[in-house]
Amino acid sequence: MRSSVEVREEVAEALEGGGAVVALESTLISHGLPRPDNLALALEAEAAVREEGAVPATVGVIGGVPKVGLGEGELKLLAFEDGVPKLSTRDLPLAVAKGSHGATTVAATASLAARAGVRLFATGGLGGVHRGARDSWDVSADLAELARTPVAVVSAGVKSILDVPATLETLETLGVPVAGFRTLRFPGFYLTDSGCGLDWSLADEEEAARAVHALVDLGTGGMVIANPLPEEGQLDPALHEKALSSGLEGLGREGVRGKEVTPFLLSRFREETGGESLEVNKRIILNNARLAARIAVALAALEGE
Ligand code: PSU
Ligand code: MN
Question: Residues 6 or more apart from 282 whose CB is under 8 A from it?
């Protein structure tokens, strides 16, 4: 039997020719952003990657076929169809068996992207250790996936709804490198600075590309390239604090659990901030797509030498 993973022609050609490719995830399209902004943003993120000279490959599952690179009709389907499942890595074999559609999280996107040979991936914010994980054991599979998969994820840190220090500790335990892009402060997704420091920063795209190249060379799994929004683009910290406490309170009151937690909190943020968090979330995703594309271009140049 052939592999069930389908790589879009344009993406396969770029990979074969040593070109730059950036993977994008689809959970944020189906579950992270409201309609119709989700489709618009998915298309804008692809356009941003192209503008920087790389080929975008949005990852998702269509009718049981895991795809690295989706067409516009497929993006539309994941954006507008009701009940598209959120797929982490462990869900992929079951979605394939059932012929189901699915939106891939950071974990599942990284896994499929790596199988196709894509090494840069842009998202908004990585999943991580949830607040209260001491009791709930809710730690995103994104972290374990990065420990074993040679993909560099460009993200604005981890979502601020998480326990950020515990997430950084867990990444350390798992052996996942974390470097700030031109900063030694770990970003807090909606906020420029999470309050946590970092040991490493990358000076420019070329240095980042050398680190990504070294991942495969040394066989050390994936890495996180943390790319903060500039301060003038962040969510007002007071508004952030208010939205966060209301969201966390709602979680407890409504008994939300498991994979519903992240989408629930993101939508609470939108309500509490009058849509401002949505605008910030879009800026984050586009900012990361652009940086990932520039690093992918630098990596292609480095490896073409
Ligand atoms: N970042 C966003 N919006 C999202 C997510 C990340 O800006 O919707 C998604 C990603 O797909 C990430 C997932 O992998 O949330 C984490 O979910 P969980 O905590 O259930 O692992
Ligand atoms: Mn979880």
Answer: 33, 37, 41, 44
